[in-house]
Amino acid sequence: MLNNFYKQFKSGTDIRGVAVEGVKGQDVNLTDEVVASMAQGFVLWLSDKVGKKPSDLTISIGRDSRVSGPRIVKTVSEELKSAGVRVLDCSLASTPSMFMTTVDLGADGAVMITASHHPFNRNGLKFFTRSGGLEGSDIEKILEYAQNGEKAPNAEGAIESVDYMAQYKEHLKDIIKTGVNAEKYDKPLDGFKIVVDAGNGVGGFYADVLEDLGADTKGSRYLDPDGMFPNHVPNPENKEAMQSICEAVKESGADLGVIFDTDVDRGGAVDKSGNEINRNRLVALASAIALEGNDGGTIVTDSITSSGLKEFIEKDLGGKHYRYRRGYKNVIDKGLELNAKGINCPLAIETSGHAAMRENYFLDDGAYLCTKIIIKMAQLSMAGKSIESITASLKEPKEETEIRFEITESDFRACGERIISELTDYAENAEGWILADDNREGVRVSFGENDGNGWFLLRLSVHDPIMPLNIESDCEGGVEIIKAKLYEFLKTTKGLKI
């Protein structure tokens, strides 16, 4: 059992904490001592997982642009070295590239120092083996080792500097060359203007990839790594971030814009008119690409995807839509499970921009997703078409909103589950409330044309004492109508701050 101190670091399938001062009320808990104990925990866990002595292990390590990254990399590397591990220091790297070191460099495991899109003062550790990312139970085991102070026997390892990102960039370039198969094979993007917004994370390398392939990337923004993130949050879900890349496309007259989060495991795009290819549109585009050669395949998404998206996947693309739970690891694990059962599932994708394709090890890789989009853009251009044509028939809601209700009871999970159970019973007996028959998280209810013409989903947050509520409507004023209907139930509940 984890004590309260070490329990605070578990964030789903990652470890996260406060790494530097600078935010009032948030004291540093990812100290050198704590980080060292976590590194030892990973060595012990990985040694048991792969059946090797710690001194026979090879572990790669990389970091995003956060200001605390160099300190944590040094601490982890030295601790691994003291256990006899051969450490491959990849310095600044993307999260997907660190997984790929287990494929290309033969590393037994990989450690990525990142806290994704979270503020500058936070950081964390994300782990990989050749099988992919770890499960929540694996993180608990690592933290238990750390909590108990268990260590591998002292031995003399080594730390080697490796420029793996150069190899990873070549990998992406080869994919684009092969996919486009242009007359100018080595310059398949010649004549295209593509801008990149890296948000001062580590995604600036992608502009180099595009330039080497002939693309004009002038007008790109915030490519230089800066762990204070002075321009905007590196997050494709952030309104300011998306406004930035939309402006960059319009100002430069680009054919396409791409944006990444801090560690490049998520991506988004913008078409030549400056319209976002994000959330449902991104899922629709990725689905169209993934279903090529996978007729009738199943696309796994998270729970908040729109009704129009389901119709697009099933009617327009001829695929099957499997709406699952929030959490990128949840959708990936479901995709793996379906394939293991013999169900053709080429893509697992969350509306946040986490997209994992079977052809790419079911790795959530923002650069790979944007690479596939760029290939499709170039292919369509040769046929006189645009990327927008693929999703032209996607029906998008007229109104949408998200409200996050705070749970006030100490046992927030029990409270949230009780409210979901009560709402399910209420919906079953309420006139005009149609419970979704494919819902696998929280409560999803649809309403007819005269009752709001849309749907809501109330669920329990994956990690926090929050109940997010998503509402979409296909008519003006529909969100308010649906809100009013749901409020009649919510005002009778206990434990929610409404």
Task: Offer a concise description of the structure.
With 498 residues, the protein is an alpha+beta fold.
Task: Give structural notes.
- This protein is α+β, with helices and mostly antiparallel strands.
- The chain folds into 3 domains: 4-162, Alpha-D-Glucose-1,6-Bisphosphate, subunit A, domain 3 (Alpha-D-Glucose-1,6-Bisphosphate, Chain A, domain 3, 3-Layer(aba) Sandwich), CATH 3.40.120.10; 167-391, Alpha-D-Glucose-1,6-Bisphosphate, subunit A, domain 3 (Alpha-D-Glucose-1,6-Bisphosphate, Chain A, domain 3, 3-Layer(aba) Sandwich), CATH 3.40.120; 399-497, 2-Layer Sandwich (TATA-Binding Protein), CATH 3.30.310.50.
- It is built from 14 helices and 23 strands.
- The protein has helices at residues 4-7, 32-50, 69-82, 95-104, 136-147, 164-180, 205-212, 239-252, 280-290, 307-316, 328-340, 366-382, 412-429, 478-490, and strands spanning 10-11, 14-18, 58-63, 86-92, 109-113, 122-129, 132-133, 158-161, 194-197, 256-260, 267-271, 276-277, 298-301, 320-323, 347-349, 355-357, 363-364, 399-407, 434-435, 443-447, 454-458, 466-473, 496-497.
- Helix 2 packs across helix 3 (69-82), helix 2 (32-50) crosses helix 5 (136-147) and helix 6 (164-180) packs parallel to helix 12 (366-382).
- The mean pLDDT is 97.
Count of alpha/pi helices: 14
What percentage of residues falls in helices of 4 or more residues? Answer: 25-40%
Low-pLDDT stretches: none
Q: Radius of gyration, rounded?
A: 23 Å
CATH architecture of the largest domain: 3-Layer(aba) Sandwich
Number of extended strands: 23
If you average the pLDDT, what whole number results?
A: 97
Anisotropy-based shape: globular
CATH third-tier fold name of the largest domain: Alpha-D-Glucose-1,6-Bisphosphate, Chain A, domain 3
Q: How far apart, in Å, are the first and last alpha carbons?
A: 34 Å
Q: How many distinct folded domains?
A: 3
**What proportion strand?**
15-25%
Structural class of the helix and strand makeup?
Answer: alpha+beta
CATH first level of the largest domain: which class? Alpha Beta
Any idea what the CATH superfamily of the largest domain is called? Alpha-D-Glucose-1,6-Bisphosphate, subunit A, domain 3
Query: What profile does the largest beta sheet have?
Result: 8 strands, mixed
Oligomeric status: single chain
